[in-house]
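Appendix C: a fully annotated inverse folding record. The material below is reproduced so that readers can follow the format used throughout the book. The structure is listed first as tokens, followed by the designed sequence.
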């Protein structure tokens, strides 16, 4: 274990409001704006449910736009979650802020989005358990990104000047973890649903209302 005092854990879910034209925009050619937003809503609620069912720590939803924006008005967010604002800057700046805040509060973190079809309570439990033996855990995705990054501590180098939205995100992150000398568990490969060709990975009932 990395510390003599056991740290608590926080799952931080990064999400856009599932509104037409804002969420899952790369799926609009296949599903239309309304369909893409409907699917984004299903995936958001699925991820929140998995995080709460994992029962490994605080569940924080880190949102854009801020939660008081009208875009969130009709989204049935569950009770018992913490809600924060992503704030400005690129994805790296937003991830870094949230991770540093949790680290300063003495918490380990699991950073996830809402795009992964395999996200589950069991997967999150396994990732949380990994942080008792490793400094970091990562679930890479087939498109070269990652669906989960778990960290026992904060270092800004994991987020600064990262080639976001490219197939080099996971490899760059692993290289940086290596340079830090952190003991990293590379867990199973996962799949994000970002492009029309990814839709075949979804359970049928997730897309039954997502029509163009």
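Designed amino acids, in order:
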């Amino acid at each position: 274990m990395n510390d003599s005092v056991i740290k608590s854990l926080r799952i931080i879910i990064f999400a856009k409001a599932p509104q037409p034209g804002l969420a899952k925009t790369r799926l609009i050619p296949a599903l239309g704006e309304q369909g893409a937003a409907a699917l984004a809503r299903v995936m958001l609620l699925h991820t929140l449910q998995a995080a709460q069912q994992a029962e490994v720590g605080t569940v924080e939803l880190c949102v854009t736009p801020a939660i008081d924006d009208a875009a969130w008005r009709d989204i049935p967010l569950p009770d018992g979650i913490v809600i924060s604002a992503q704030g400005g800057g690129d994805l790296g700046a937003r991830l870094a802020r949230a991770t540093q805040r949790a680290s300063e509060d003495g918490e380990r973190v699991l950073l996830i989005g809402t795009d992964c079809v395999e996200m589950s309570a069991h997967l999150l439990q396994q990732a949380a358990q990994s942080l008792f033996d490793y400094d970091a855990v990562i679930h890479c995705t087939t498109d070269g990104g990652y669906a989960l990054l778990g960290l026992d501590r904060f270092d800004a180098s994991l987020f600064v000047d990262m080639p976001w939205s490219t197939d080099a995100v996971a490899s760059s992150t692993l290289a940086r973890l290596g340079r830090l000398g952190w003991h990293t568990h590379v867990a199973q490969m996962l799949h994000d649903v970002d492009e029309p060709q990814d839709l075949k990975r979804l359970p049928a009932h997730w897309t039954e209302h997502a029509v163009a």
